Amino acid sequence: MAGGYAGKLLKLDLTARKVTTEPINEKAAQKYIGGKGYAVYLLHQYLREYEKQGISVKDMDALDSRNVLIFVTGPGTGVPRFPSPSRYHVMTLKAPLTGSIGSGNSGGEWGAFLKFAGFDGIVVEGASDTPVYLAVVDGKAEIRDARELWGMNTMDTTRALMSAVKGKNTSVTCIGPAGENLVPMAVVMNDEYRAAGRAGLGAVMGSKKLKAIVVSGDKNVPVARPDEFRKVSDRCLDTMAKNAVTGEGLPTYGTAVLVNVINEAGAFPYKNWQSGVNPDANRISGETLTEKYLVRNRACWGCTIGCGRISTVKSGPFQIVTAEGPEYETIWSLGSACGINNFDAIVKAHHLGNELGLEPISVGSTIAAAMELNEKGYIPEEDLQGLVLEFGNAAAMVEAMWRTAYKVGFGKQLALGSRKLCELYGHPELSMSVKGLEMPAYDPRGIKGIGLEYATANRGGCHVTGYTISPEIVGIPEKIDPLTIEGKAQWVKTFQDFTSTVNSTVNCLFTTFALGAKDYADLLSNVIGWDISEDEIMKIGERIYNLERFIMGKLGFSDKDDTLPPRLLKEPMPEGAAKGQVVELDKMKEEYYKLRGWVKGMPTAEKLKELEVEV
Ligand code: SF4
Q1: Is the pLDDT of residue 1 over 80?
Q2: Nearest Cα residue to atom 4 of ligand 1
Q3: Which of 127, 136, 126, 173 is nearest to 154 (CA)?
Q4: Which helix (H) or strand (E) holds 356?
Q5: pTM to 2 decimals?
Q6: How confident is the model at residue 558 (pLDDT cuts 50, 70, 90)?
C-alpha cells in the first residue's frame, strides 16, 4: 500500500461479536482518497448489498441494527508536519435526525492515534444486546464489556478507559447519556473536547450499544517521498503562519472571532432567526471571551493553528473551574439563537453539552424554536412541566439541555429535534432547519451564497461542506459581495468539491483559509507517492459529492428537499446591514444544478460516467 495509509480497516460485527480486518482497496483509495470519500464509497457498497437482498434503505430506520457506522481517517491523518493532521470522519447511511446520509468530522487526538494503533478505519455492523466497547491496542482489537460504563457521561467514560488502557498514544471516542438514550442530536465525542456528529451519529452508536472505542499504539505513518514532503510541508505551514486567519485570528480569539464580524454583516441569527442583529453581541464575542474567560489555548494533535479554548467562569450560578470552548457556533446556538447574552451560562452549557454528548447547533436551535413556539402560545402549559421557555432565560436553556439528553418531561418533545417539535405543535415553519438538520450561525438573508450551501448540502443545513463565508465575509481567496447572488452557484460548487477532498485527506478544514488545491495536490502526492494534480483534487471532490448525492436519491431525497425555511425566503430581514433582504434561492439553485449537470437535484447517468462513478 502507498504511503499515508495503515493499509487496513477493522470490521466490527456487533451482532456476531466478531472483529476482522480487511485491506484498503487501493483502486477505491485512488478514486476517493480516504476519510469521507472512502466512507461514501463503502456506504455505496452496503447500499448495493441491501438492494441485492431486497432491503429498502428508504424505509429502513436509522436505528435499525442493519445501519452501518464508519469511522475513517485519511492519508494526511497522523502524519507529523502535515497541516492540522489529527482528524477523522464518521459516516452512517441513515442519520436519525434527517433520514439523510449522516456525516461528521472531529479533531482532538483520536484520528491520529487510530492510525498509530495500526488501522485506517473501523466499520461497525450489527448491534450488541449488552453495552460493549472496542479496544484497539497495538494492531489488535477486542470487544469488551461496557456495562459499568453505561450511564456515565463522556468525560467520566474517557477517564475510566484512559486508566484501563495504559499504552502509548491512548485516546477515547465515546457516547454520553444523549447517545445512550437515542437522542437524534447525540454526538460521538472524543478526548473530552472534540465531537463528530451532526444529525445523531451518537444515537446510531447508542443503538448498537457501543459505548466507546479506545485506541492506542505507536506505529509510524509511512511517507512515500519524505524529502519532497518536508519541503511542501514547510511551505504550507509557513503560509498558514502568515495568513491573517490561521496565523492570527483563530489562535488569538478562536472561532468566536466571528461573533462581532457576522453581527455587523446583519447575519448573526437572533431569537430563532427573527433578526440577524443581536443588540448585545459584544457581550458574547471572541474579544470578551479572550479578555474575561480564557485560561489558555488548546490545539488538536499536530496542529499549528490551535483554535481551541479552555475557559473558566470564576463565580456565580454557572461557575466552572475549566471548560472547553465555547466555539462560535455554540455561543450562537446556546446564546444568541435563544436571546441569551449571559456568557457564563454559555460556557457552562457548552461544557454540559460535551458531558452529555449533545450536538450544540441542533439542541440550541431546537430550544430556540421551542421558545418562539411558547412565546406565541402554541405549547400547552402542562406540556412544559415547569420549564419557563422564554427568550433570554439562561437557566431554562441549561435545564432544557439536561431534559433533552435524558428525555425527561418536556425533554421528550425537545429530543425530537426542531423539525418534528414544530410539526407536533402545528408550526413547521418555525423550525430553522434544512432536510431536518438545524442551520448554523449565518443568516443567508445577509450572506446569500451560504443559503445555497445550506439548501444543497447533502447532510442538510450545513455550513462546513461549502464554507462560502470565506469569500463572502472574510475575503479569502477574494472578497465578494455577500448580498449579491451573482456567481454564488459557482462558489458553492467549488467549495463543496474542494471540501470533500479535504474531508477525505482527512485534515482540518481551517487550513483552507490559507491553502488551496495546489497545496493539497503537493501534500498528498508526496505523502502517498501518487502524482495527483490540482485538477484531480477538484475532480475527486466532485466525484465524492456526486456519489453521496446519488445515494441520497436512493434514500428518497430530491430537488424538493433542497430548500430553506420560509422565514428566509419570504420574511425580509427587519434591521441591520441586510435590512429588507430575502434569499433568492430559486435563481441560484437553477444555476447550481446546471453547473453540477444535475436534473431535478440528482446526478444524471452521463455525469456519473464522466466522473467515473460506477453505480
Ligand atoms: S484549527 Fe482548531 S479545530 Fe482545526 S485541528 Fe487545529 S485546533 Fe483542531
Answers
A1: no
A2: 508
A3: 173
A4: helix 343-356
A5: 0.97
A6: very high
